[in-house]
Design a protein that fits this description.
Layout: E1 4-8, H1 16-24, E2 29-36, E3 43-51, H2 54-64, E4 68-69, E5 72-73, E6 75-78
Antiparallel strand pairs: 1-3, 1-6, 2-3, 4-5
InterPro entries: Nucleotide-bd_a/b_plait_sf, RBD_domain_sf, RRM2_NsCP33-like, RRM_dom, SLIRP/GR-RBP-like
Keywords: RNA-binding
Protein name: RNA-binding protein
Length: about 100
């Protein structure tokens, strides 16, 4: 099991420091990051926490999954690797005129 966790359904009031603090009750937190919108800097409502060991990560899942923060039930599970979106199709390419 990985020690990197996905944390979803976060209230917009949660920041990196408070996320770190909540998870530190279950072991060593090596990183905690709330994902934000690149344009306005607002929280996207989810984040990632990396725990010191898989056992600590499992303890955090058991302790915080479904726990209510500011009226919202947290979703905590093992983070999956980012899916490759590929180059995609789409238009917008240059087309010379003859």
């Amino acid at each position: 099991m990985s020690s990197k966790l996905y944390v979803g359904n976060l209230p917009y009031s949660v920041n990196d420091a408070s996320l770190h603090q909540n998870f530190s009750e279950y072991g060593t937190v090596t990183s905690a990051r709330v994902m934000t919108d690149r344009d306005d800097g607002r929280s996207k409502g989810f984040g990632f926490v990396e725990m010191g060991s898989p056992a600590e990560a499992q303890a955090a899942i058991n302790g915080l999954h479904g726990h209510t923060v500011d009226g919202r039930a947290l979703v905590v599970n093992v983070a999956r690797p980012k899916e490759d979106r590929g180059t995609g199709g789409g238009g917008g390419g240059y087309r010379p005129r003859y």
